[in-house]
Design goal:
Layout lengths: L11 H9 L3 E6 L13 H17 L5 E3 L22 H17 L4 E6 L5 H14 L4 E6 L4 H10 L11 H10 L31 H4 L13 H19 L11
Parallel strand pairs: 1-2, 1-3, 3-4
Helix pairs in contact: 2-8, 3-4, 5-8, 6-8
Length: 258
């Protein structure tokens, strides 16, 4: 059965009807970058896509919603010292999202949620959203990173054993990959794949750009050795429930001052 949430699977008249119904358009945004010796480079793109899918299925019984094809390449310059990483510069990333949102707005859609799955995209998405809202009249463009929602972060901490939240290629991401595509995880080396326990200055309110190779010799932050598929399924459900709740919050799409 085709899930009627995917932009690319629908016909033009169907999309026009959804625009007329003021459907929310979710644009998953990820990255293609190294994820240690045990995970494939598509982790961020895949997880953003899956959280978007699950969230949309939860929302569609209450209001019209669509999920576009994933923006699979983001800002990953800090991972370029590891083979396999692909990256855009800010100008290209900005132009790509601007043109996608402009196209969506042109067809009558007024609500866009950029669902992010890569930490390196967060700051840029905040800037891009603020510019697009001013540029494209009548459009609401919102960005959100699934693991940074307070209610999601709190529940993630309860599920995870070693890490409090998502860290690069660690317990959380490895668990979610084991739940989704275990055949792409090199489980034979998980016990040897643990990396740097934490990124210096992370969450401290200060920012400093460094190559990821300076932070972690193997490209991992945390403990993939304790990852399980059961944890991964719980994490995906919590993340998608959190995003679904945000999408259905009417205040997200309204003027702050009425």
């Amino acid at each position: 059965m085709i899930e009627q949430i995917y932009w690319e699977q629908l016909r033009s008249p169907q999309l026009k009807s959804l625009a007329d119904a003021n459907a929310i358009v979710v644009v998953p945004v990820g990255s293609i970058e190294q994820h240690g010796p045990h995970l494939p480079v598509k982790v961020d793109a895949l997880l953003a896509t899956e959280v978007a899918r699950r969230a949309a299925l939860k929302v569609q019984t209450h209001q019209p919603i669509l999920v576009t094809p994933t923006v699979w390449c983001g800002l990953a310059e800090h991972h370029m010292d590891f083979c396999g990483t692909l990256t855009l510069d800010f100008e290209t990333f900005h132009a790509l999202l601007r043109n996608l949102c402009r196209s969506i707005r042109h067809h009558g859609f007024r609500r866009i949620f950029l669902l992010n799955g890569h930490g390196g995209n967060i700051a840029a998405l905040n800037v891009i959203c603020s510019e697009l809202v001013r540029e494209l009249d009548g459009l609401r463009v919102v960005s959100g990173t699934y693991w940074t929602l307070p209610e999601v972060a709190e529940k993630f901490a309860e599920i995870l054993e070693v890490q409090q939240n998502v860290r690069h290629a660690g317990e959380a991401e490895t668990s979610m990959m084991l739940a989704l595509e275990p055949e792409l995880v090199d489980q034979s080396i998980l016990n040897q794949a643990d990396g740097t326990p934490e990124i210096p200055f992370y969450g401290s309110g200060v920012s400093r750009w460094v190559s990821f190779k300076e932070v972690s010799a193997n490209g991992v932050i945390g403990s993939p050795s304790v990852a399980t598929a059961a944890k991964g399924e719980l994490l995906l459900e919590v993340a998608s429930e959190g995003i679904a709740g945000v999408l259905q919050d009417p205040e997200l799409w309204q003027n702050i001052i009425k």
